[in-house]
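User: Good morning. I'm curious how zinc ion would be positioned relative to this chain. Could you predict the structure with it bound?
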Amino acid sequence: MSPSPSRPARRQATSSGPQSGPQSGPQSDAQDGSLGASRPGTRRGPVSGRGLALAALALAVLLPAFSLAQADPVGERPKIDGERLVQTLGILAHDSMEGRQTGTPGGDRAQAWLVEEFERRGIPDLNGTRTMPFDFVPRGGDTELEGVNILGWIEGSVHPERYIVVTAHYDHLGVRNGEIYNGADDNASGTAAILEIAGWFRDNPPRHSILVVAMDAEEMGLQGARAFIAEPPVPLDRVVMNVNLDMVSRNEDDELYAAGTYHYPFLAPLVEEAADHSGISLLMGHDSPDLPPGDDWTMSSDHGPFHQAGIPFIYFGVEDHPGYHDPTDTADRITPEFYVEAVETALDFILLADRRGERILEERAALSAAAAGVGN
Ligand SMILES: [Zn+2]
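Assistant: Good morning! Here's the predicted structure, ligand included:
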């Protein structure tokens, strides 16, 4: 994935200044069930005389609280353990993991450590299933290898039978020419992030089930995600959407991308809302087919096979940096403050998607009906 600066690949996500801060915990806030329009202005309709009096009264009561929220909207967002996040990245990117290539001792070590870490953190498995082994032939290879996806399941309180699938690949490039490719940003960062996200939802039960998947063999052709779609551990028609994190810990300009709204425009208002709550710049883009190949990230990581299966996705990732697929992608070169903020922003987005999962599924159904219509 190496973007060329030929044409702007990004669209600003933020609307004009922060709106009211997020409320903590998963609940449905869009009374009309809408996903909300992209925010040129307010969304509320006209009110009556009596309503005005009531509104004035409410304002008089709420004003101090509202202004507080305005002053520090970011403060209300879900928080993760930033220190543990960075520590976990450091463990996965440590030389002892030898760059975590699938099918090598380093890859096996990372896999074993992750399985134990899911247990240690009390992240439930999926009805007794923690690991999903799969066989594949690496891209450009001829020998069959085994990969292992690692699952965590947080049961939904309202729609336990529907799933938001949160993914990050834990494999990387291993050792090449005697040099370890530690893969701190790619993708120890995303793997450590989904552990924190699963832990947060364990303590704040979601409305829809959250299925967290540490994917294997992404570097060998998105093999873990392809295996997931080919033999899904849950029915694919029950998957609300995929949220994929790959390279979320290193950016000098405090810019994080959310790719996918070109294909799924109904997700743009949620990205905008998460952007408004965020302390970094959340940008939409890198997802339209008219961009030069390197600039279109639609198939650049594990969200690709979900998209091919008609499942909406948002992929969170940073622009390329000098450490991309290089031995210099090490833990000491990440930007920790940005990293914590990026993960909290992604968590906030997932929370918003959880609140509006019903509408996302409806939009997904409408999209596939339309696609089927085009096909006839
Ligand atoms: Zn990656």
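The chain is about 35% helix and 15% strand. The first strand starts at residue 10 and ends at 12.
Let me know if you'd like a different ligand tried.
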